[in-house]
Amino acid sequence: MLVDVSVERARQSLLDMVVCLPGEEVALGEARDRILDDDLHAPVDLPPVAQAAVDGYALGGEGPDVRGEYTLSGVLGRGRAVAVATGAPLPAQTVAVVAREQVRVEGERIRIAAALPAGRNIRPAGEDFRAGELVVPAGTTVDPGLIAVLAAFGRDRVRVRRRPRVGILSLGEEIVPAGSVPSPGQVRDANGPLLAALAARHGARAAAVETVGEAGAREAGPRLKRLLEQADLVLTIGGVASGPDDYALALLKASDARVLFWGVASKPGHHSGAAVCEDRPVIALSGNPAACAVAYQLLAAPVVRALQGLPPCPKAIPAVCTNSFPKGGGPRRFLRGCAACGPKGWEVTLLPGQKSSMLRSLINWNALVDLPAGHPPLMAGSPVSVLPL
Amino acid sequence: MLVDVSVERARQSLLDMVVCLPGEEVALGEARDRILDDDLHAPVDLPPVAQAAVDGYALGGEGPDVRGEYTLSGVLGRGRAVAVATGAPLPAQTVAVVAREQVRVEGERIRIAAALPAGRNIRPAGEDFRAGELVVPAGTTVDPGLIAVLAAFGRDRVRVRRRPRVGILSLGEEIVPAGSVPSPGQVRDANGPLLAALAARHGARAAAVETVGEAGAREAGPRLKRLLEQADLVLTIGGVASGPDDYALALLKASDARVLFWGVASKPGHHSGAAVCEDRPVIALSGNPAACAVAYQLLAAPVVRALQGLPPCPKAIPAVCTNSFPKGGGPRRFLRGCAACGPKGWEVTLLPGQKSSMLRSLINWNALVDLPAGHPPLMAGSPVSVLPL
């Protein structure tokens, strides 16, 4: 068991045991924002055959130029024209398509205003995608454009990575479920809904959001066991604080878990640990909401991404901090910020309420500002390293 | 009826008739990414009472400093100490909390290692939120942090703007639904799934994605009528091309619609129109996929946002284009790009496949590059105006 390790080492010990979940088939309408499980190769040319690029008339004959008069007909041939709509497959022998507004219709005949070259207004087969070409690789997020491409290829079902199921268990005896009314001395669970929403944002879904409540340790073991059956990853909240006699640690040991690390060099988030239990990762997070959220981003979000075969960590980006932070020294610090692109690259503004017990800094939060151990107080305008979330 | 109007004028004619949809109550777990319908004021102080900031002992007595020995007890009083966990409500009369690791326990007594000032390790009531304060205004998107705050306030249901319902109707007689197998001469509907996914990204949901198919005009009228009953906004696809004798225009006129505009000064997207039918907006889009998607973003997405009471249009941002575009002149052009924040602000890369008939440029698409009418060919490194999507 590693104790008080770096964020990187803690995270790696988790990622070392994560295997990408198998894929599953979903209806195309359900595939938005999911992760493609296979490379997508174009199964056919798109368009499959030559199409009209305008509303008008397909003209039969030979090149190079097309001019003069044509006889309207149902079947194309030399000197004949067939009315076509934009996107319609063109009859064989089409040499060009003339736009409706470029002709004069005289009974059964049309007269072309100006000569046009062979091939004009024809979209050749395969203009958009060539049969066999790699359209996007596995691991691509299915966006609306890709949905349209899949629909055009006739794919009404698509193989995507399974969404990780996350089990969430609050260990504090004073914690009651979010929807209930707390008695004096009890506190509503805000961390459970927080983690469920964060996990959903990263493509997972909450298999369960539970609180152990007054039953405490007696109930925690069986609950953890049940969650491990339902979930690919379990997050516990609370009971991580004082080192070797932690409640969460005792629970994991009693559940025959192999502890990976306990304590991380991060403020907030120091009181975090992780274990492997029945081949599944269990991450113990602090009950302090900002600590819980920061440790989720540093340790759990990478697991959620890796379970979907995605790069686990956002790349750190340089940014300028627009406001100041008075505290310096101490351990490596992760402040909650809101980052935006400015005229000189990324700018990040520290959000109000940076105490680990406070929820306020989690509203509009989209970036972590990573300050090294022993950093001086931060001045407005300072360069910082930022993890986009 | 306005003909061949600017994008701005076309859009405004639509926005002039849009009213924000009423709110609805949803379970907190369903509120993620929805739009808050009311200002959120803190109903109580958070934390509601003073809490322990560490695991340790609440100490009874008076300030200014706390030192010496205390007797462990269930009830606090002068010279007495009560064991508390982080986040636990503190007994009245608590003068400070000493961390567990800062004391020596001797039977029924604890001895404090070093004196600590009154108030140490106490989170005062209202430290995070003060009762009555405005937390976030109506119109805020519910993010995970806000979900946690709502949970902490005991809100298990939350009032959010209703999701606009979008009806999508493909008018082309050759178009068959996305899941079906086209006969020769038929084409699968890619635009319907595309628009449904784009609308979902903007907070709406597709009430129906339909194709008129071979039944054509005979079927289109009744279908439109039915969609207007199910949807807040109807998008038609195709049949918009050649001006006054358009199929889509004829359909709208036959449906007693008041036409707002027909034809927009935009390439692609010129073949777009809009009408008001039974007090609902109907936007007619081109059947060419890139034209359909661009006109959706310029005309329909603002309506989807306005229906949710959101600012209808993204703010144009200056960017540098990283690649070139050989065509110049002609009408105002909207190219599909992928924008990212670089060291000197936004950079946008034009995506491959910029013909209006092609789907390719819609993959990974997150920005529209807005080139004015008559623009010269675009060189790599040129400044451009970009609409983030």
Q: How is this structure best summarized?
A:
The structure is a homodimer of 389-residue chains. Chain A is an alpha/beta fold and 389 residues long.
Helices and strands, with pairings:
The structure is a homodimer of 389-residue chains.
Chain A: E1 2-5, H1 7-15, E2 23-27, E3 40-41, E4 51-52, E5 56-60, E6 65-66, E7 69-72, E8 80-84, E9 94-99, E10 103-106, E11 109-112, E12 116-117, E13 122-123, E14 134-136, H2 144-152, E15 157-161, E16 165-170, E17 175-176, E18 187-188, H3 191-201, E19 205-211, H4 217-230, E20 233-237, H5 247-254, E21 258-264, E22 273-277, E23 280-285, H6 289-307, E24 317-321, E25 333-342, E26 345-350, E27 367-371, E28 383-388
Parallel strand pairs in A: 1-21, 7-8, 16-19, 16-20, 17-18, 20-23, 24-26
Antiparallel strand pairs in A: 2-15, 3-14, 4-13, 5-8, 5-9, 6-12, 7-11, 10-11, 21-22, 22-23, 24-28, 25-26, 25-27, 27-28
Helix pairs in contact in A: 1-6, 3-6
